[in-house]
What does this fold into?
Amino acid sequence: MSNPENEELQEENYSLKNEKGFSEIVRSYQERLYWHIRKMVLSHEDANDILQNTFIKAWNGLSGFRGDSQISTWLYRIATNETLSFLSKKRTQNIQSFNELEDLLLTNLKSDNYFNGNDAQLKLQEAILKLPEKQRLVFNMKYFDDITYEEMSKVLSTSVGALKASYHHAVKKIEKYLEE
Amino acid sequence: MKKEEHILLDKIGKDLPFTIPENYFENFTVQIESQVSKKAIPIRSNTTWRLRLYVAAIFIGLLLIGGTLYNVYQNKIDNTEKIEQYILSQIDDATLLDFYLEELEYNE
It folds into this structure.
């Protein structure tokens, strides 16, 4: 998650509140944050909306950023919160149409032009969707991004021990689902 | 960790089955830059100077109040000292000495 070169960029008396400085931040982190969001919401359009909201929130919150965490951690936190808010809102909106939001996400994924996975990958996404949201986050961050538990702990405000247990449990559930 | 993931890794791997539109990230940066420039707060030098004036005025006000309070306090002390001196001047030395000796006995 953290990139030493980019962290230096930001730490070096950078006036983050100017547009040029902020553009650098966007360029440095947009891809990582996009995929972090996309893995949770699955749809490119939704991920794009959330990513925009994330950076707008970051821009608006820059003056309040005290540098007591790394920029990457701060941005990941905003992105995560925006994603969870989005999913929560979507769940409320679809409560009458579908029993589960996850059914909706999966149905949309199958017909999504920006999904090019094979059957096994589709089944994996299906299995991941069965996990509770926070556990999905943990699984995605560990399995796909290989983020350390220490870094994850700062983003999700959860202890390392709890994250390890959550991931271990997630893997077991997913493997059981894949074997069915 | 690899051990517990082995079924997943063997069967599926870690590639994400998602694609994005062409030049998405290049366009995204431009999009955000235009949104941010709309929201940019212009630097107004008047605001900065006004703020400095307010701060200076508050500081001067505090100094004046502090100075006034100090003078009042000093006057009080001066007055107190004068009153003490006056009272003491009304008592003869013998009476004063008796008083101090009694105090000493009381405190022993």
In short: The longest helix of chain A spans residues 19-41. Confidence is low (pLDDT under 50) at residues 8-14 of chain A. Chain A touches chain B at residues 19, 22-23, 26-27, 30-31, 34-35, 38-39, 42, 44, 48, 51-52, 55-56, 59-60, 114-118, 120-122, 124-125, 142-144, 167-168, 171-172, 174-175, 178-179 (CB under 8 Å). Chain A is about 75% helix and 0% strand.
